[in-house]
Design brief:
- With about 180 residues, this protein is of the alpha/beta class.
- The chain has one domain: Cobalamin biosynthesis CobH/CbiC, precorrin-8X methylmutase (Rossmann fold).
- The protein is built from 9 helices and 6 strands; from the N terminus they run αααβαβαβαβαβαβα.
- A 6-stranded mixed beta sheet has the order 1-6-5-4-2-3, sandwiched between helices.
- Strand 4, helix 7 (about 110-120) and strand 5 (about 130-135) form a beta-alpha-beta unit.
- Helix 2 (about 25-35) runs antiparallel to helix 9 (about 165-175) and helix 7 (about 110-120) packs parallel to helix 8 (about 140-150).
- It is globular.
- The mean pLDDT is about 95.
- This is Precorrin-8X methylmutase.
- InterPro entries: Cbl_synth_CobH/CbiC (IPR003722), CobH/CbiC_sf (IPR036588).
- Belongs to the CobH/CbiC family.
């Protein structure tokens, strides 16, 4: 049962942002991210795909691992542990090369991880269930997010430079709490 303040916040959000035309998973994710930031412009910046989100949600329901780029993303995912790439001693390339098939990737800070993930997906070395690629940055973030979308893998991204750990975390939580 949501806290009364949270319920009221979502009521306000729905008066300001029309999410009624979205599928249930897209709506949940968009609303969670708008709620997290109190910024209604996220509704128009996010590129959501109902089938991609369904694949991620099913993978999570089936117990797929969550792979986070940084601890800040991982600690916000409260209902299950996440593996943090930045804490792996084997190095980014080795970790990504040996990543579990069907994992849900939540990247909210590190553009280099998105770039490496794209390269490994292109090479057929990994097959994620869903990639949430929302790193912020002026250098390479837009291009990395575009590369994820061009792969044709299940993904949630946005168009611009904005992003961050809180958003990647919120997207995972939206799928977990449905």
């Amino acid at each position: 049962m949501p806290h009364p303040i949270e319920s009221e916040s979502y009521e306000i959000l729905r008066r300001r942002v029309d999410t009624a035309g979205l599928g249930p998973l897209s709506r949940a994710v968009v609303e969670r991210l708008v709620h997290t930031t109190a910024d209604a412009t996220w509704a128009g910046d996010l590129l959501v795909d109902e089938q991609a989100l369904a694949a991620g949600r099913q993978a999570l329901a089936d117990g797929a691992p969550v792979i986070a780029d940084v601890r800040m993303v991982a600690v916000g995912i409260t209902s299950r542990p996440a593996t943090v790439i930045a804490e792996r001693t084997c190095g980014l390339e080795e970790f990504v090369r040996n990543a579990p098939v069907g994992a849900v990737w939540a990247i909210g800070q590190d553009v280099a991880i998105v770039t490496e993930l794209v390269a490994r997906c292109r090479a057929g070395e990994i097959q994620p269930a869903l990639v949430i690629a929302l790193p912020a940055g002026f250098v390479g973030a837009v291009e990395a997010k575009r590369a994820v979308r061009e792969l044709g893998i299940p993904a949630l991204t946005n168009r611009g430079e904005r992003g961050g750990a809180a958003l990647a975390t919120a997207a995972v939580n939206a799928l977990l709490y449905l």
